[in-house]
C-alpha cells in the first residue's frame, strides 16, 4: 500500500483550504478540493453553498457527482493532498487530518475572506456563525443518512489540530512531522 496521500477535513473556517494548498506546495504534492467542486456545482445551480446543501438533501445527483470525483481521485497513485469534508471516508488509506477552530475565530476568517463568493452573504460575525452552524447541521444530517458516518468523530482521524492560535506554517510543520512518522509506521494518533 502506498502511503502518499494526505486528507484534510475540518470545521468551516478552520483553514482547510489554506493549509492544504500550503502543504501541497511544501511537500510538492498535487492538490484537490471538493470545496471547489461544490462551489462549481453551486454556481451551475445558481445558488450559494448552503442552498446547494439543502438541494442535495433531495437531489442525490449532487453528492453522486462529488463522490464520483473523490472515487476517481482515490484511484490515483500520485502523491496528493485532498481538502474535503469526507476525504477521510473516501480515501481511507490517507493520513487523515482534522482541523478544529472556535466559531468566533472561524467567523473572523470568513468575514475577511473575499474569495468566498459562493457562500451566503453575511454582514457580521453573528450571521456567519449562524450560517456555519446551519451548514454543519445540514451536512452532518445528510452524511449520517447517506454514508452513515460522523465527520466530527475524532477517532476517524490520525491527527486533530486546533488551528485557532497557530500559523499556517506551524500547522503544516505539525502535519509534515506527523505524516513522516505515519509513513514510517511509527506514528501514534494525536488529538492536540
Task: Please describe the structure with a list of short key phrases separated by commas or semicolons.
alpha/beta; 192 residues; six-stranded parallel β-sheet
Between the first and last Cα atoms, what is the distance in angstroms? 27 Å
Arrangement of strands in the largest sheet: 2-3-1-4-5-6
- Report the helical percentage: 40-55%
Q: What are the low-pLDDT stretches, counting only 5+ consecutive residues below 50? A: none
Task: Please give the count of helices.
Answer: 8
Shape: globular
Number of strand elements:
6
How would you classify the helix and strand content by structural class? Answer: alpha/beta
Order of helices and strands: EHEHHHEHEHHEHE
Strand content: 5-15%
Averaged pLDDT, please? Answer: 88
What does the largest sheet look like?
6 strands, parallel
| Radius of gyration using CA atoms only | 16 Å
List the helices and strands and how they pair.
Elements: E1 5-10, H1 16-26, E2 30-33, H2 34-45, H3 49-56, H4 60-75, E3 80-83, H5 87-90, E4 95-100, H6 103-111, H7 125-147, E5 159-162, H8 168-183, E6 190-191
Helix pairs in contact: 1-8, 2-4, 3-7, 6-7
Description:
The relative contact order is 0.20. The model has no long low-confidence stretch (mean pLDDT 88). Helix 8 (168-183) links the parallel strand 5 (159-162) and strand 6 (190-191). This protein has helices at residues 16-26, 34-45, 49-56, 60-75, 87-90, 103-111, 125-147, 168-183, and strands at residues 5-10, 30-33, 80-83, 95-100, 159-162, 190-191. By secondary structure, it is of the alpha/beta class. It has 8 helices and 6 strands, in the order E-H-E-H-H-H-E-H-E-H-H-E-H-E. The protein has a 6-stranded parallel beta sheet.
Amino acid at each position: 500500500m502506498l502511503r502518499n496521500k494526505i486528507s484534510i477535513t475540518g470545521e468551516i473556517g478552520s483553514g482547510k483550504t489554506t493549509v492544504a494548498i500550503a502543504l501541497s506546495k511544501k511537500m510538492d504534492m498535487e492538490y484537490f478540493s471538493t470545496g471547489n467542486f461544490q462551489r462549481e456545482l453551486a454556481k451551475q445551480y445558481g445558488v450559494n453553498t448552503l442552498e446547494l446543501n439543502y438541494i442535495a438533501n433531495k437531489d442525490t445527483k449532487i453528492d453522486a457527482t462529488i463522490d464520483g470525483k473523490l472515487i476517481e481521485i482515490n484511484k490515483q497513485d500520485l502523491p496528493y493532498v485532498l481538502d474535503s469534508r469526507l476525504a477521510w471516508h473516501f480515501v481511507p488509506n490517507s493520513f487523515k487530518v482534522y482541523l478544529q477552530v472556535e466559531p468566533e475565530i472561524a467567523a473572523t476568517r470568513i468575514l475577511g475572506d473575499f474569495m468566498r463568493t459562493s457562500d451566503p452573504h453575511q454582514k457580521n460575525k453573528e450571521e456567519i456563525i449562524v450560517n456555519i452552524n446551519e451548514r454543519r447541521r445540514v451536512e452532518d444530517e445528510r452524511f449520517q443518512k447517506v454514508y452513515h458516518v460522523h465527520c466530527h468523530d475524532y477517532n476517524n482521524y490520525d491527527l486533530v489540530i486546533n488551528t485557532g492560535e497557530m500559523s499556517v506554517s506551524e500547522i503544516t510543520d505539525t502535519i509534515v512531522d506527523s505524516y513522516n512518522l505515519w509513513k514510517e509506521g511509527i506514528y501514534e494518533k494525536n488529538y492536540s
